[in-house]
Structures are given as C-alpha cells and as structure tokens.
Design brief:
The complex is a heterodimer of chains A (157) and B (423). With 157 residues, chain A is of the alpha+beta class. Chain A has one domain: Alpha-Beta Complex (Sufe protein. Chain: A), CATH 3.90.1010.10. In chain A, strands 1-2-3 form a three-stranded antiparallel sheet, covered by helices on one side. The longest helix of chain A has 29 residues. The N and C termini of chain A lie far apart (55 Å). Chain B is an alpha/beta fold. Helix content of chain B is 37%, strand content 15%. In chain B, the strands form four sheets. Chain B has a seven-stranded mixed sheet, with helices on both faces. Chain B has a four-stranded antiparallel sheet with strand order 11-12-15-14. In chain B, strands 1-13 form a two-stranded parallel ribbon. In chain B, helix 4 links the parallel strand 3 and strand 4. In chain B, helix 3 packs parallel to helix 4 and helix 10 runs parallel beside helix 13. Classes of the chains: A alpha+beta (157), B alpha/beta (423). At the A-B interface, helix 1 of A face helix 11 of B. Bound molecules: pyridoxal-5'-phosphate. The site of pyridoxal-5'-phosphate (PLP) has 15 residues of chain B, from helix 3.
Amino acid sequence: MSTLEQMYQQVIMDHAREAHGRGLVEVTLPAHGESHQVNTTCGDEVTLRVGLEGDRIASLSWEGQGCSISQASVSALSELLDGESIATADDTVEAFRALMQSKGEHLDEEREDLLGDATAFVGVGKYPARIKCALLGWMAFRDALIQARSASEGGQQ
Amino acid sequence: MLRDLHDDFPILSRTVRNGKPLVYLDSAATSQKPSAVLEAESAFYREHNGAVARGAHLLAEEATEAFESARSDVARLVGASPEEIVWTSGATASINLVANGIGDASLGAGGEEAARFRIGPGDRIVVTEAEHHANLIPWQQLAARTGAELAWIPVDDDGRFDLDNLDTIVNGSTTVLAFSHAGNVTGIVADVAPLVARAREVGALTVLDACQSVPHLPVDVAQLGVDFMAFSGHKMLGPTGIGALWGRKELLDALPPSVFGGGAIAIVTMERTTWLEAPMRFEPGTQPVAQAVGMGAAARYLMDLGMDQVARHEARLAQIMREGVAELPGVRLLGPVGDPDRIDVLGLAAVAVDGVHAHDVGQVLDDLGVLARVGHHCAQPLHRRFGLTGSTRASAHVYTREDDARAFVEALATVRSFFGVHA
Ligand SMILES: Cc1ncc(COP(=O)(O)O)c(C=O)c1O
C-alpha cells in the first residue's frame, strides 16, 4: 500500500461517503453544548452538538462540509462516542490526539481498541498539513462536551 | 521560445515523495529561485555587506551601490525611474503603505501637501470581487477608519470584471480604485485601460496589484497609467521578505509615511521631524539589503530572458493546462480557457473537481509528485462567487516545462477514480 492509500483507507472512504450522525438533532436535555470549528487554511467547518444524560452522551449530531478526511473523521467519532460514557469519550479523544501525533506509527493495543474504526486515520499522521483536517470534528466534540458539562454542573447548583 | 531553464534552478533537481521528480506547480504562491539570485544574495554578504546610506567607509559605499543598483534594475523591469520604487517587504506591505498613508493623511498627517489624499464619510473606495485579501482588507480597514464607503466591481461567471455598471460603481465620490492586474485564481489578465480612464474621469487614485503580472508579463507603468503599483520579489524569482511599491513621484513625495525611524528623515528636533523625499521617506530603519540585491538580480534575470518571451512561454503552458483540464469530465476550470495568441490568461489553472474536496485533490497530485496549491488562495469572496470554498491551482513560471503542465492534467485525470467518483 502506498502512503496515500494508507491515508485514504477504505474505512475512511466509506465514512466519507456515508457519514454517521450527520444532520443536527435538536437536544432538549438541559446538559447540552454546541461547537462550531473552522479550519482556517481551507474553510472546512463542523458544527457538533452533544446532550448529556448523567455521565452518558445521550445525543451526538453534527453538520459540516469539507474534505474526506475531516468529514470521515467526525463521522467515525460520532459512531464511536454516541451513547458512550464521558470517561470513555475523554480517553478516546486523548487516544485520537496521540494517534495524530504519532507520525504514522500505531499506538498500543489498549488505545487502538478504544479507537476502533478511527485507528484507520493513522496514515494521516504522516501528512502534517492534514492533521488539522482529521482533528476538526474532535476539537468541536471536546468543546461541545465542556459546554455540556458546565451546563449540567450549573443545573445542579 | 525560451530555452529550458531547469538547470538554472537548483531546487528543481530534487525529488519528492516516493522518489518522484519534482513537478513544481505552485509558482503563483511563491516562485523558485535561479542560481543567479542565490549567488547575488550570497555574494553581497560575502563581499559587500555594510550599512546602507550610513557612514562613509568602503563597505558602506559598496553596499549602498548594490542596494541602489538593485532598485534601478527593478525599476527598469517595470519601466519606472528608480526614485519611484519604494522597497517594502512585499506586495501586502506595499498596498498597506498606500492605504495607511491615505488613512493617516485623512487624520491630518502630512500637512497641506497630503490634503489631496484625505478621505472621509461620503467618499468611496472601490475594489473588485476578485481581489486577493491583500488588496481587499487594507481597503476595508481604510473605509472603517475614515468613514468612507467600500464598493466593489462584481465579476461575471467567468471571473472577469463586470464593467456594465462601472460608471455607477466608480462614481463621482470615488477617491480610490484598487484592482488586480492579473488574477491569482482565474489567471485573467485585466484590461486596465477602461478602469484607469474611468478613475481619471472622477479624479480617483488607481492602485494596481501587480503581484501576479510583473513576474509573468511585460509591465510598463507609463503604459498602464495607474498611480500606484504593488509587487513582490518572491513571486518573480527573487527572495522572500522583499517587494516594491511603485508610485508617481509627486504622489509618493506627498503621501505621509506610517512607519517611522532613522534614515527616512531630513531634520529631527525634539518636537518635530521633516521627511526626506520618496523613496527614502518610506524606508526607515535598516532595510533588507541582501534581499533587495536578490530581487534586483531576479529582475535582471527576467529582463535577460525577455518578458515577451516569458509571456509567450507561459501562454503555451496556460493552453496545455487550461484546455487540458477543460476536457476532463467532472472538472470545472475557474475562469475562461483563454486565447494563447492574446495572452489574456496567466500560465495557471484553478479547478474544482466534482465530488472531491480540493484538499483531497491536492493530496493525490502530491503523491504523484505534482505540487499544486489547494484552498481559497486568499480569495474567499471570489470562491464564494463561484459557489465554492476552495479550488486546486497549478501555476507555472519560466522554468515550467510543457511536460510539467501535462503532468498536472494527467494527474488530475486520476483523481475522481481514486475517490470512486464517476460522472
Ligand atoms: C494577486 C496577489 N496579490 C497580493 C499577494 C500578496 O503578496 P505577498 O504575500 O507577497 O505580500 C498575492 C500573493 O499571494 C497575490 O497573488
């Protein structure tokens, strides 16, 4: 496989073509957050919304437009984390960031298990210019999650 | 015809990903440098380096001579006189110099001689929808600072300036008309004459962004008839960090400087300062001397080739790229195909590929050793006008071979099947 094919693995192409969680869903849960992220080099954008029920991600949806890497990445995130616990989500986000910084090397088994399909993005780490694309949705998720948490903490007071 | 210039450009012999030969097609972003430029810069440091226009020792004299003769070379390239060439850090700085000068004059700087530049509420600044952000944002900011209004000339579906309503857009309140000589996305070479004629009719200053024309076409300021013109060294085979502003001498002598310091002044007391004439008034502080020397060498290199020859060479490359991509299914060329005999487009081609994002297109090209630019190329409004957020652009220069131009078309032809998109 060429490095190009390593980056555009079939899993990624599939996610790009048939994205998960696309289409913003209205969240009535009090603990919710939304984040809009733009990749300033290309104008790609993602708006991502989460709703929490206790410590579980009960709703995760997004809208966006951009390159196959950015769109597939947020799709993979959505498939992985919708319904998960906040703790697992935090670990998964950290693992994905580590994967992006690994310069194309695989991570340990534990973190790759956590990442599931998203492990396929390993090839992106070899292309510094594309790491931002892959991280776009993950940044939106992290930001939306912070907001949802502070909304839920506010609600408990 | 130009001879093959590959051997003049050391970087072109390197290889890229997977050991592939380099096909460099991002010259509109920045050009590669010939040995003549690299050596001029290095020789300056090795043999002549000294403080310019400060002191009387031998090296100071030699450095000043090198700096000023570079200015003459750059002036000669665009048909100007040396005292009308101001060194800047690039086209962006050149345009900002004019916009800031007008803004400061509007606040009273520069006294009576700068009164001709004053603008305010009720006045109008006109740009076009096709501008690079460097020739848009400074004018937006100037309008915001002074209360003047910003208006723009729209473009048609091909990206050409739409001059149907020129007389109502460039109206009697217009004080500045800023536009590009050649488009960095469409490659269109503008017909400057009707714009200059209209600006003159209403007494507006014309500011030409010649960043993409000076490196590729014969440019003569007298023929163009504009008042100011901006261009960059690094796009015309010269170093980064250096560029030029050309302006009519009487305008440059009246425009107040916005950056202050040593070397630009006539008399300084503790209370006030009087400026030197242009260009010195705009060159305070230690200048990028070696870069200026490099830009002078680049100007000489281009003049030795002959700008007519350069333009013809690139017209041929334009034809290969533009006609080639226009025939590919699912590929949209931004701008017209152009007519090589009239040299109405630059040697570049920006395309949108149906169903494939520009970043993904660029990645496939990169893998084939074809280095093109992806994104909005600092022209968001123009891409929005085309209904796009970005495009993939291949752009040529004197060293680009016909095979390079063909490699772009061939690489582009593989993109849709790589991503499984079919017509
Ligand atoms: C048409 C045009 N104007 C202005 C600029 C800005 O030039 P620089 O970045 O050298 O200041 C560019 C460069 O991208 C350009 O293509």
